[in-house]
Amino acid sequence: MIEEKIEINKIPAETEYYDVMGGSHRWEVKVHDHGSVALVDSMPRLAPVGQTADFAICQAARVSYGAGTKKVSEDKGLIRYLYRHQHTSPFEMVEFKFHCVMPVFIARQWIRHRTANVNEYSARYSVMPDKFYHPSAEDVRKQSVSNRQGGEEQLEAKTAQEFLDYLDKVEENYKTYNNLLEKGLSRELGRIGLPVSIYTEWYWKIDLHNLFHFLRLRMDSHSQKEIRDYANTIFALIKPIVPVACEAFMDYAFESIKLTRLEIEAIRSGKPINTTNKRETEEWEQKKQLLGLDKTSQA
């Protein structure tokens, strides 16, 4: 046997380690009425006492195995430097596995991020649950004029109620779906009449670098509120485990402002941005407000 020729040297740890999830089986947060996000595992699961899972980022960056460990303050400076200069591979040494329950319409947006490992509940093999996302009247939004994808202001009450009544009728069709399955209809065909408001679930594993990319887009105010609720929940779950990396993410990505060459030239010259693109001009106006630049000085 080949295995008999391989000698494994089991090296004891030079320092004391602890479980970054505190020995818990899962950290779970409820989202909306029927949804949830649960952190079920983390890599590394063990971190040196006195440190967080952030240590794995520094370990990879230094290409070491913990020998001559730097001070925590030096580790923080290194992590912030790595993120600031987009040295992303060390962040890929940290991974998280989540169990997520969400409506299908959110899952279809979510799966657009193709840098994770996913295994989803199958409606071919199993009966879909009698659970639907049903927003409150306050969450029924009017179509945005400036954003084709989204909705912003609350829809007037009468039309909002019409929409909620429509959802009630759609959800009532679940009884027909279930009855047809009991009469022998295949599950793979029965599922095609179900609405995208029905809930699905999956296990989702992703490294920290790609997770930050997901969060930067899905925590943004321009993202659909429903998936933004899930993204904010994920960030809250990982922050205690990699607090230094999360701080760097907020400082250098999520709460930062990226300037284009044209925008930098507009600041330097004091003139309007040199473009005829309406959307680019609107984005520049938004950035000027965030930067506190005087509009009159740009005229």
UniProtKB/TrEMBL annotation:
Region Disordered, residue ranges: 277-299
GO molecular function: flavin adenine dinucleotide binding; NADPH binding; thymidylate synthase (FAD) activity; thymidylate synthase activity
InterPro entries per UniProt: Thymidylate_synthase_ThyX, Thymidylate_synthase_ThyX_sf
CDD domains: ThyX
Keyword Flavoprotein recorded: yes
GO BP terms in the entry: dTMP biosynthetic process; methylation
Domain of life from the UniProt record: Eukaryota
The keyword Ion transport appears for this protein: no
Basic and acidic residues compositional bias, start-end: 277-288
Keyword terms of this UniProt record: FAD, Flavoprotein, Methyltransferase, NADP, Nucleotide biosynthesis, Transferase
Gene3D superfamilies membership: 3.30.1360.170
Identification of the protein by name: Thymidylate synthase
